[in-house]
Specification:
single chain; alpha+beta; Creatine Amidinohydrolase; four-stranded antiparallel β-sheet; three-stranded antiparallel β-sheet; 4 helices; 15 strands; 25% helix
Length: 275
Amino acid sequence: MFKSALPDATPMSVQLKSQEDIAGMRVAGRLAAELLDFLEPHVQPGITTGELDRIAHDHQVNVQHVVPATLNYAPPGHRPYPASICTSVNHVVCHGIPGDKKLKAGDIVNIDVTVIKDGWHGDTSRMFYLGTPSIQARRLVETTFEAMWRGIRAVKPGARLGDIGHTIQEFAEGHHFTVVREFCGHGIGRQFHEEPQVVHYGRPGTGMQLQPGMIFTIEPMINAGRAAIRALADGWTIVTADHSLSAQWEHTVLVTPDGYEVLTVSEGGPKPPAP
């Protein structure tokens, strides 16, 4: 959430997390995933994205006792983001601002949430169908989900960031979709956005080498049409330039001594695809 492609970080700038840090990140990640579980039954035709935001905010503050990281978040050059979740519908790529528009049958929507618990950030997003999606929409959403998981499964000590990006790009383009290049995953911890930048395209064997204790998001944005995007006048919402559908999934991932651990899983979340 709220990420952009920046110059490559150096390994010295990455904060490796201690076991105590990781324990805090597990709690924050689980709470973020459980927030999406809670929202799922509310994602029905006729509800507005603004109503979903109000439901989510109340649950975060009064039930989970977390801070919504997105509310009033204002990186340099941006006005404060006005909501507690992002809701990106159909051709909206990311950072869709909740509002008065009602969701309708056939829509697809990405809900992106970040919570802060005891100073640690949990960041995840999930796609939802409203009623029965079109064949193309279902193919796009399912391909993006598998692309994310293929990228996650490329994570291990000694692998490179380029291995993750290449795996995602190859799978998405192999299904005749395109990868958005202007936005990327990011390191995360006590800060919403840390190094490294994790792009979803690239060449294997390139980029920063992964080390145990690194935590970052993998969150590919995949378009049904061209990869080109544009920003709306609100300063936040990003849409496909050709008005084609876009999908995104996001998990927060820890590099472990022998592979990876996904920190944003929950009982109600979708299960990983078969390897």
